[in-house]
Amino acid sequence: MGDIADFEDWDLIIEDIHNQKCIVIVGPDILEYEGFDSFFGAVSNELKENKYISQSFVEEQLFQIKISNPIRAKAEKNDGIRHIGKAMQRVIEQNQAKLDAIALLLKKLPSELILSLMPEEATFSRILENPVRYYHKNKTSEKEVLPQFSSESPTMYNLLGVLSQPESLVFTYDDLFEYIFSILGDNRLPQALQIALKNAERFIFLGVNFNKWYMHLLLKLLASDKNVLAIDAQIPEASRTFIMSRLSLEMMDCTPIAFLEKLASTYEKSSKKQEEITPQKPVEVKPVIAKNDPVRVFLSYAHVDEEFKKELLINLSPLIKQVKEIEIWEDRQITAGTEWETAIKSQLAQSELLICLVSKNYLNSSYCESEISTAITQQKYVLPILLKSCAWMDFPFIATRQVVPRDNKSIASFKDQDEAYQSVYEEVKRLVTLIKSERAI
């Protein structure tokens, strides 16, 4: 357990934030609620005379909805959920000024992604200037597409739902178990979010009560084997000892708001100092893509699969040379003397579609994995083409995409290779049409 005055890692945290390697998780107890120990204590007080609530479990941050008529069980549960949501909204409105201050402090930090365990969304959407995204325990996230993460307009992702969608929230024990089965089962978090969590090296929990078994599970899911700092001065000493002996985290003995103020102040001083010694770089202007311009394709492959690549380009030549529907870039086009990593990052950023040639060689390449994970994080279309049989289904970045040729057949498995490449051609053509249709006019 540390004290804010003795904390020595401010510079490391600032560096991790700059490099998008640090994720801040905001809990409901990031605020101090006058007269109550916690957010749920204040909400429970709002519901103490409510006919729909039979019991409040403040320590567990859950409620039990009273069902008086089994025939109307669903209707009574829905009404109870709505009453809980309204009580939460009242507590938030009573503390609106404090919440605004928190959101403004978060905006000062150059974070691309902020996670939330607090059901509020309106304040964060207004001040962060970006709609709050959220996980819904009863809906699959396979089709959920997050916006491209940007430090200028941070994405806040609420892991436990939002008030505007009461059915998404985790209010009761039933909700909690549905949530756990969902997040560990088929309805996993969006792919871009999983990648951000994987790439992060540091997590800072502000106002999150770890004195609950399911919060231990969530910590393991989000930040296993990472540098974890928990800020909460309200957890009793005995509980802290128990938590820290079971979980790999460091606790700081200060209020979340005090830590956030110090972090924002340290970052501001660091930025000013950096501006004094660093010449101003010209603003990079991204080229405007007209609706009928060729789709920019980034080709990701292992060099040992060069022959497959050449055959693919021959089969895609009508789209490249005749109708000029696509422009393909590959790393063989890097000119001598060019810094290759910079060139790859630049071309990947400008691309609209990443085509990856999947084989055991590709799966064994860490740089190929980096290219595909970057493309997914940037919300680009990704088309895996299966060259030969390999363990591609064990790679989530690929397994969650539609692989071609379809039916999990590899190109090498076709007796007629022309038939295989023709099926790939049709899939690329269809995807190019889709990408063009989604462009701004």
TrEMBL record:
- Source organism per entry reads Arcicella rigui
Q: Which SUPFAM superfamilies does the protein's record reference?
A: Toll/Interleukin receptor TIR domain
Checking InterPro entries in the record gives: TIR_dom, Toll_tir_struct_dom_sf
Keywords from UniProt, A to Z, are:
Receptor
Indicate what this protein is called per its UniProt record.
Answer: Toll/interleukin-1 receptor domain-containing protein
Q: Where does the TIR domain lie? A: 293-432
Q: What is the lineage of its organism?
A: Bacteria, Pseudomonadati, Bacteroidota, Cytophagia, Cytophagales
